[in-house]
Write a structure and sequence with these properties.
With about 60 residues, the protein is mainly beta. It has one domain (about 1-65). It is built from one helix and seven strands, in the order E-E-H-E-E-E-E-E. The termini are close together. The relative contact order is 0.28.
């Protein structure tokens, strides 16, 4: 499940990506084969952290399994 991390909250991508020009046709982040296609990987602070991505709009996205 993809989530967007904000300073003090966790949001569903539908709340943010619906209005993004880089989102797919259903208003979701461009997530393919375990990679965010509309952003880049952010360095992990610890090995136990899930991989974080930063989208082109500046939001942090995490895939929580």
């Amino acid at each position: 499940m993809l989530v967007i991390l904000m300073e003090d909250q966790i949001l569903a991508p539908q709340q943010v990506c619906q209005s993004c020009l880089l989102a797919d046709s259903s208003g979701q982040p461009r997530w393919r084969q375990g990679q965010l296609r509309c952003g880049h990987t952010v360095s992990k602070m610890t090995e136990r952290q899930p991989v974080q991505y930063e989208c082109m709009m500046g939001f942090r996205i995490v895939n929580i399994e």
